[in-house]
Amino acid sequence: MSASWGRFDPAEADRRWQERWEREGTFRTPAVPSGRPRTYVLEMFPYPSGRIHMGHVRNYTLGDVIARVRRMQGHDVLHPMGWDAFGLPAENAAIAHGVHPRAWTEANIATMRAQLKRLGLAIDWNREFATCDPGYYGQEQALFLDLFEAGLVVRRDADVNWDPVDQTVLANEQVIDGRGWRSGAPVERRKLTQWFLKITDFAEELDAALAELTGWPEKVRVMQANWIGRSAGLKFRFRLAEVLEGLPDGFEVFTTRPDTLFGASFAALAPDHPLSAALAARDPALARFVAECRRSSTALAELETAEKRGFDTGLAVVHPLDPARRLPVFVANFVLMDYGTGAIFGCPAHDQRDLDFARAYQLPVVRVVTGPDGATGPVGDEAWTGPGRLINSGFLDGLEVEEAKAAVIARAEAEGWGQGVVQYRLRDWGVSRQRYWGTPIPIIHCPGCGVVPVPRDQLPVLLPDDVELAGPGKALDRHPTWKHVTCPRCGGPAERDTDTLDTFVDSAWYFLRFAGPSATAPFDRAAAEAWLPVDHYIGGIEHAILHLLYARFFTRALYRLGRIGVAEPFRGLFTQGMVTHETYRAADGRWLEPAEVVWAEGRAVEKATGQPVTVGRAEKMSKSRRNVVDPDAILDRYGADAVRWFMLSDSPPERDLPWSLAGIEGAARFVQRLWRLGALAAEAAQGEDGELCRLVHRTVDGITRDIEGLHFNRAVARAHELANAIERAPPSATRGEAVRTLVKLVAPMVPHVAEEIWARLGEPGLVADAAWPVADPALLESPTVTYAVQVNGRLRETIELPRGLPAADVEAQALALPRVRRLLEGRPPRRVIVVPDRLVNLVA
Description:
By secondary structure, this protein is α+β, with helices and mostly antiparallel strands. The protein is 34% helix and 19% strand. It has 26 helices and 35 strands. Strands 8, 9, 10, 11, 12, 13 and 14 form a seven-stranded mixed β-sheet that branches. Strands 2-1-22-23 form a four-stranded parallel β-sheet, with helices on one face. A hairpin with a 7-residue loop joins strand 11 and strand 12.
């Protein structure tokens, strides 16, 4: 390459083009429909923790490539950004640093916004909002009232996971090994009056609609299905063998395994079951046991791994299929009131939890389903939960499991003691949080009128700024004036609800607001219906259950209420992998940052001391292990394009991406290489290069399909292949056009250097506005193909021949090969098999 533009300066180019895009409003979404196709690209909005990390960089780069390609393909694109800004971390940080949560949050947003803008993202920043903006959370309060008026919000007592340090309720998923996910304090089980959204009313449709979400990863759909937990089974009533005065005569049980009823050896009640409470009132020992159970988590996963403990009530129930049998009734710590009916029958041979309990309390273990290879002997340490035939089960003997289930349900319904039903594991969504930094619940509590919604003309209910966060209990409860109001119904003294909404509510509808962020209603219906469902929703797998399920519920609730004509929020979902890095540990056990480590003579040492460093495996970047790489430092050194190219290059985007210095330096070299190719295109040259032209069109077709399929690393590989070919090609007019096409193909990935080359070549406008290349189908196939030449079925040679060559000519070309002639020893083959454009097999 003889031409030279000097060295590309990424820092200068990044600044210049980002300023121009912002000045010209390049990525602003059209306010008025243009009639063009529409694409909504949305990455899950970030929590403003202080600074972006490499996970953010990868996430937003992936979405940005899609958004830029769609613009070049002639689409109107909605690609917005906002901030998931409420939550306990801001409150804790505010206490620790002596600042107001709003000041801390807004400062973090300003820092992170500036960092994200350095990446050159094609975002419409005019639609930006934070969930802590009164204009946002006031509309959220209006939505809460809509759901309240529709009967989809209820208030009731419920067992909750209580973090005694953070003084707040935790979701089951926030309880890790019995401790709060942030404070690490042992979690207690408490009964509190809570607000719930009735997501259970939507369980059936949320489950059924998963089959229609073909643009979602299968593993996410499976995770949601398991969480919703559809199960068909038998609901029946156990009758107490002896009814005590003042107690009910029995209790209901739901089971998905009615086929195993003959293997039952006990019944068990949840500690909070009404019958448990009634018995505890008469028995101090049982009352103490119930109190102990209440100190544990309500999370099912935690209970599954906890020691199985029970209290024998002394009661017994009558077996519904064998009235002569009696089963002892326990109160057990592993039975939850909110699952099923709060009561179970235990079949130890075919349920591991029941088996653990039975072994602990010396209860019978009776196999009623044959095991592997028809085994009928005693069960060991593991319950058999697989298929088989029924044994030791009277009229069910010999039936397969599913047949036996149907038979038991049929008998229960015929005899009137039970019925077949479908139940869901999903529980109503508890949204009350005992913290300050969240959306105030727009409810007033009046001694005379009860629960009263805040009048809509008084929304938003604003958080008070003069609040004292430190101290026990709820800050809003301690405020001297905020909660004291006049009842809007009777005019008497009343109090505001001093809980705030779960921050998952904030993220359950924000994608609707982006369609029309200045709307005076929660969302602009016409705009939301025009843009939704989101075509490409991108985020981490950690949000596969709660956030996505709650967003689906909110959308379906609004659809049911006639507020929007869209039932599902996200058409396409992509869950990207994490960015990982090796960990480094000093000799004294301290974690070291990558910048504190150097390599000398093939081993890692601490830069400050020269002492050896233990290198750990690559794992998620985290502040605790200090294996983080500061995006700003990398951007300063290599520029945005190199960072973006690295994020797209080395791994399929759904897999984890190990960070490496070699990788980012390789990406920076490609950016410089592309710049040199641009200089090559500036040279005047004549003539055509048919082979290079065909490769260009194959590359256009391949990269287009790769980006459609989110195979960004494959697209990068194709770009490298075309760059190699351009460098090898002799000067021609085709070579200059090939460079221009390559620049357009990589512009969504490395937009700054692409704009710089585009301008230097004198092309009109921005490359961001240029039309995406379209491949000519006639040029996608090479005029030649490579034949495999076999002798007696073994590969002996390959030969390049014109595509579509007649079989006789293929045979003649193969027979003329010197090696083939030697193998055939001059004799004609007995048989010749030609597979067109693929292989020729000569049988000697």
